[in-house]
Amino acid sequence: MKNSDTHHTQFDHNQPRNDGTSTTIDSRFNQTLKNVQGLLKGRSIPGKVLLTRRVEPADESSVPSPDYRRTQSAHETGTSDRINTILDEDVQNTSKQGNTANVGKLKSSTSDNEITSKEVQRSTIGARATDSARVMKLTKELSGTTVILERLRELAWSGVPPYMRPTTWRLLLGYAPPNSDRREGVLRRKRLEYLECVSQFYDLPDSERSDDEINMLRQIAVDCPRTVPDVTFFQQEQVQKSLERILYTWAIRHPASGYVQGINDLVTPFLVVFLSEYLEGSTENWSVSTLSSQKISEIEADCYWCLSKLLEGMQDHYTFAQPGIQRLVFKLKELVRRIDEPVSRHIEEQGLEFIQFAFRWFNCLLIREIPFNLVTRLWDTYLAEGDALPDFLVYIYASFLLTWSDELQKLDFQEMVMFLQHLPTQNWSHQELEMVLSRAYMWHSMFNNSPSHLAG
């Protein structure tokens, strides 16, 4: 949250703003607390975290708000779970009515956490703490005869251990069937289908391609070496060839959009996750030359089908003029205006359009804006959102932008452009990412079912 009276009172659209000098910090905090409790009361809210007044100086690098700090209960799991949403310890999962839009984000109840509180361990896998109770639930869910997808979404939203990601992602995207008896057969058939597509569309001489197809393949070949350039793994020739095959085959089979720059970025999380089933250690030390051609083909197939499933839900993001992205950028502008009017006004006064910086965020799903080692964690939440992802992106990106609310208000047009093109996220850890997701969830809970709040 941002340290300003305006920011806090934005949450209460029924109370008049009090700008009097007699208003104290305590009264503003208590009113904000009451407002948010009222909005969230009766909803199923994940996690158990309190937002409390900060009473002693703190390191600004680890505390995202000047006025607030996160106080975590003994049952908290560090940065592994959503860290913002409970402002009232007594809010329980008592009502699911009218909350189907958020069912993919539900967390286990406080009582479940209390039962397993003594068993919570901090795992260093993925450089972040993981709730052992939630991991056990994930393990149980994935090992069942039939996976209950809504339950899996609930558990995956807060992050998935790396060794569970390949199976979890295939299920969340609907690529692998929930029924374990059918799973192996379906994957085998889809992988063979991908091989046939590559043979039919990619393994051809240019003489058998149209001019448009030749130009598209050349553009893909140019973009592959530029994909995640700061991760040496993606500079391997064999990796770039896999990217090229996946992207060209997808583009040929989806002529409504064809290949659009940015889709190359979207393949990379899938490639890393599915390769992790066969390669160990840091991606910096991976070499795909150690894998058989059959394994590489299977990994490519999984990437191809998962990319296809992901983009099914956002088809108009990549068709001519990319109207889906333009629509979401407009929603982002409106949401930021409601949440943080001062920074919204400053951006507008400086003549900066949201499309100038946010287009890339939606086009590449933030992959170019954060360290690559955080991308798969972010995508756990993306994929857990399912069909609701496009709308939820607006809240994530509002939270992302407003991380630098104070800084942005000090910059002129040119400085803002440079700042937003090179955001200072290079030293981000999971903690900063979890805070972005936390705020996004809170704002989504407050605004999503109240469209009048976002009316123009």
From TrEMBL:
Region ranges (Disordered): 1-25, 53-81, 94-125
InterPro entries: Rab-GAP-TBC_dom, Rab-GAP_TBC_sf
SMART domains: TBC
Gene Ontology terms, MF aspect: GTPase activator activity
Rab-GAP TBC domain segment(s): 159-386
Biased composition range(s): Basic and acidic residues: 1-16
Polar residues bias (residue ranges): 94-114
Gene3D superfamilies attached to this UniProt entry: putative rabgap domain of human tbc1 domain family member 14 like domains (1.10.8.270), Ypt/Rab-GAP domain of gyp1p, domain 1 (1.10.10.750), Ypt/Rab-GAP domain of gyp1p, domain 3 (1.10.472.80)
PANTHER family, per the entry: LD44506P (PTHR22957:SF26), TBC1 DOMAIN FAMILY MEMBER GTPASE-ACTIVATING PROTEIN (PTHR22957)
The protein's name in its UniProt record: Ypt/Rab-GAP domain of gyp1p superfamily protein
The organism of origin for this protein: Pelargonium dichondrifolium
